[in-house]
UniProtKB/TrEMBL annotation:
Location of the ATP-grasp domain: 122-319
Organism: Pontibacter mucosus
Region (Disordered), start-end ranges: 477-498
BP GO terms, sorted: malonyl-CoA biosynthetic process
GO MF terms held by the record: ATP binding; ligase activity; metal ion binding
Keyword Protein biosynthesis: no
This protein's name: Acetyl-CoA carboxylase biotin carboxylase subunit
Biased composition (Polar residues): 481-490
Gene3D superfamilies found in the cross-reference section: ATP-grasp fold, B domain (3.30.470.20)
Length: 498
């Protein structure tokens, strides 16, 4: 066993804060790294120590593995938590951390590398007879060979970057006539995004659901799954709303998919927290998609239904502790939803809407959790992912979790920028979502930006009520409470002037 005393969180924003909070509860010191753009960020203030590692761009700061490792050496850090994104699935970084005598809170470099290649991952899990989408088993560069394979698989097909993610290097091809052009585009995009232009082909499943299974593995060979998350509400192949458990999985299918996820983890001797992703078609057939060798953005919904702190489990596993529970000890309690609150304009094709948080007030109450990294008055940097927060609700069942989410969205006050909050309300009130009868085509099939635009005659009652309140207030002398609220200085202002 190796006791961890100081963790450097090689990340920023809400995930950095989320890791640091658990570390503090465990009596572990924390170190933040930050870019010049994040000098006043909340994770910088929260950590016991903080070091600037470079310029605003990720390539100048959060992706500088050599600089981050040097900070660890300078400050006596004995473990690194990578969060998600940035260096979290970089096998070379994980190896360099280990070679520096520092614990990497995550899987082995070998597991990261194996599962980082979709083709290598498929080959590794094949011996466990896990269902996979029909397609190629090797990378293809020859266009004619690829076109012939596509004909054999049958159009429509999907061209995917082997080292890809987030929808990059991915093309749906409906016919042989446009295949060559689409393959060249996929190769070019994959090369630009990942430095690896290798692609593969698989049958395109037109309207799947995106179901993923959370797994945990320790260094003693124990691997368990923590049930599923439904992640089918997506834009540009990236998730916006997630929930646990899925509204449609039967206990038998849940058990079968969970067993398959554990086998995927066994195929790479997995250690730590990871996620195995599947596609589920309209006939309830599931297919292995990929494995994410890190903590997922949507991990809070799993924490809500299991009562486990996944970051704490990660740290304990990294210390060499065996899992403190078995598969049969785990059960689903209640239902949880997560809405990713992005600084994006849903009425304008979800384009980023960067700016200043003129108003920022979080919702509160039983069953509401907000993981964020911002305060009122702060700017949303242009250099990083535009996610402001993760709004999470928990209820005794799906209906209650939805009701709490709708209330929390209404209570969440953000002005100065457009966000995905109104889109969340639209989805949660839509019959397809409420009934559970939806898939990854939800936005394409149902969403029209016009539904978010306020009609001229709407809001009259609210405006009248607001005016009445103002007139009533003018008739009363200012109370001490009112005077205090008007002169209140936010924490952000106070901390900046220290």
């Amino acid at each position: 066993m190796r006791k961890i005393n100081k963790i450097l969180v090689a990340n920023r924003g809400e995930i950095a804060l989320r890791v640091m909070r658990t570390a503090k509860e465990m009596g572990i010191k924390t170190v933040a790294v930050y870019s010049e753009a994040d000098r006043n960020a909340l994770h910088v203030r929260f950590a016991d120590e903080a070091v600037c590692v470079g310029g605003p761009k990720s390539s100048e700061s959060y992706l500088r593995g050599d600089v981050i490792i040097q900070v660890c050496k300078d400050l006596g850090v004995d473990a690194v938590h990578p969060g998600y994104g940035f260096l979290s699935e970089n096998a070379a970084f994980a190896k360099a951390v280990q070679e520096a005598g520092i614990t990497f809170i995550g899987p082995t470099p070998e597991a990261i590398e194996l599962m980082g290649s979709k083709l290598a991952a498929k080959a590794a899990v094949a011996k466990y007879n896990i269902p996979m989408v029909p397609g190629t088993e090797h990378a293809i560069t020859d266009v004619e060979e690829a076109k012939e394979i596509a004909r054999q698989v049958g159009f429509p097909i999907l061209i995917k970057a082997s080292a890809g993610g987030g929808g990059k290097g991915m093309r749906v091809v409906d016919s042989a006539e446009v295949f060559e052009e689409q393959m060249q585009l996929a190769v070019s995009e994959a090369t630009s995004a990942f430095g690896d232009g290798s692609v593969f082909i698989e049958k395109y499943i037109g309207s799947p659901r995106h179901i993923e299974i959370q797994v945990l593995g320790d260094t003693h060979g124990n691997i368990v799954h923590l049930f599923e998350r439904e992640c089918s509400i997506q834009r540009r192949h990236q998730k916006v709303i997630e929930e646990a458990p899925s509204a449609i999985l039967t206990p038998a299918l849940r058990e079968e998919m969970g067993r398959s996820a554990v086998n995927v983890a066994k195929a790479c001797d997995y250690v730590g927290a990871g996620t195995v992703e599947f596609l589920l078609d309209e006939n309830m057939n599931f297919y292995f998609l990929e494995m994410n060798t890190r903590l997922q953005v949507e991990h809070p919904v799993t924490e809500q239904i299991t009562g486990l702190d996944l970051v704490k489990e990660q740290i304990m596993i990294a210390e060499g502790n065996p899992l403190s529970f078995r598969q049969e000890d785990l059960q689903i309690n209640g239902h949880s939803l997560e809405l990713r609150v992005y600084a994006e304009d849903p009425a304008n094709n979800f384009l980023p809407d960067i700016g200043r948080l003129e108003t920022y007030r979080r919702p509160q109450g039983l069953g509401v959790r907000v993981d964020d990294g911002f305060e009122q008055g702060m700017e949303i940097p242009i250099y990083y992912d535009p996610m402001i927060a993760k709004l999470v609700t928990f209820g005794k069942d799906r209906q209650e979790a939805i009701a709490k989410m709708l209330r929390a969205i209404e209570e969440y006050q953000i002005t100065g920028i457009e966000t995905t909050l109104p889109f969340g309300t639209y989805v949660l009130q839509h019959e397809a979502f409420v009934s559970g009868n939806f898939d990854t085509k939800f936005i394409e099939r149902y969403f029209n930006p016009d539904v978010l635009e306020r009609k001229p005659d709407e809001g009259v009652d609210e405006i009248a009520a607001a005016l009445a309140a103002v007139l009533l207030q003018r008739q009363k002398p200012a109370s001490p409470a009112t005077a205090t609220s008007e002169t209140h200085t936010s924490n952000w202002r106070r901390n900046r002037t220290r």
